[in-house]
Amino acid sequence: MKKVFVISNMYPSKEHLSFGIFVKNQVEALRNSNIDVLVAANDNPATGKKNTILKYSKWAKDVFSKSLKYRKDISITHAHYVFPSGVFSLLLKKYFNIPYVVTAHGGDIERMAKKSASIRNWTEKILQESSAVIAVGPVLAEQIEKDYKIPKEKILVCSMGVDRNIFKPGNKREVRNELGLEEDPFIYLFVGNVIKQKGLEELLVAFQQVKKESDRKVKLVIIGSQRDRNFVDSLSPLMDEDVSLLHPMEQKELVKWYQASDVFVLPSHLEGFGLVALEAIATGTPVIASNVGGLTYLLSNGAGHLVEPQNPKMLAEEMLNALTTPKEQYYHREAAEEILHIHDAKEITNRVIRLYESAVTEVQANE
Length: 367
Prior knowledge:
Blueprint: E1 3-8, H1 21-32, E2 36-41, H2 49-70, E3 74-80, H3 85-96, E4 100-104, H4 107-110, H5 117-129, E5 132-135, H6 138-148, E6 155-157, H7 172-179, E7 186-191, H8 200-213, E8 218-223, H9 229-234, E9 243-246, H10 251-260, E10 263-266, H11 275-282, E11 287-290, H12 293-299, E12 305-307, H13 312-324, H14 327-330, H15 333-342, H16 345-366
Helix pairs in contact: 3-5, 7-10, 8-13
C-alpha cells in the first residue's frame, strides 16, 4: 500500500486544539505504524455563511491540489464524517478510481443528514459507493444499515480508540496541587463542546441541586469549545463561583483534569460514541452519562452509570450517589478494563489498517 489520503472537515490547529483531535490522533497512530498518510483537512471551526464558504473553498483547493499531485501514489482515501468529507472521496473515486472508506462519527448521521433532502441524498450515495463504512458505535451502525440500506457486512463498528499512554490514572493530590486546585472539594468534570445537545443546562441545574442537598463542598469544571456564544451566555444564570468554564487544551494538560476530578459527567442528548467518557474511564475516573447512542453501548456492562437524557432530577440523584459512594464501589474496575481493552488505540489502528488493505486488494482484484 502506498499513501492513505485522510480527508476530514475537522482537524486541530494551534488556535483550536480540540477541534477534531481524535482524527489527528488516528493519523499519528497510523504514521507510527509506518503508514504513509497524506492529510487535507479543515482546521477552522468558524461558523456563519461567509466563514463557511471561505474555509470550505480553501479546504477543497487543498484536497484537489494534493489529489492531482499524488493521485498515482494514493492507494485509498479515508473520509472522516460522511458529509461533507465523503463528497471529496466520492469524486476522487469517480475521476481517479481511488477506493475509499468513510467513518461516520454520529453527528453526520444524526444531524447533518437531516438538514435537507440534498444532504441526505449525498450521505446515502457516499455510504453506498464506499468500500467500507466505519461506525464509531453499534447503535450508529444499526442506524446506517437500516436507514441507508448498507449491508451489515460492509460496516465495521470501530471507535477512534483511547491512547492509554496519555490517558492513565494519576495521583489526585499531586495533580490538584499542580493545577492549583483545593484538595477537599468533590469535583465533577465535563469535557466537550459547550452546546445545547451536550446537556449543559441539565448538568448545571443538577449541580445546583447537588449543592443544596450536600454538606460537602462541590465544584463543577466544564472544559470545551465555546464557539456558540449565545448558548454560553444563556447559561450565565446557572453559573456561580463553584463552576469553572475552561477553554480546550492539549491532551497532556487535559488528562490532568480527568485525574484531578472525582467524577466525569456527560449528559448528552445524543452521542455517536462518547470518546471523552472512554478517556475518563482510562484515567480511573468514574463516569455518569446519558443512556443514549454510543454511551449506552460503552457503559452498559457496568463501566459507568447511565441516566435518562434531559432529566436533571435523575442526573442530580446519580451525582449525589457518586458523592456518597466510596470510589472502590462506584468505579467498577473489571468492567472498565474490559471496555479499555476493546477500545485500545493500538488495536483500533491495526483494525483500520487491515480494512485499508482489504479494500485496496478488492479493487485491484476487480481491475
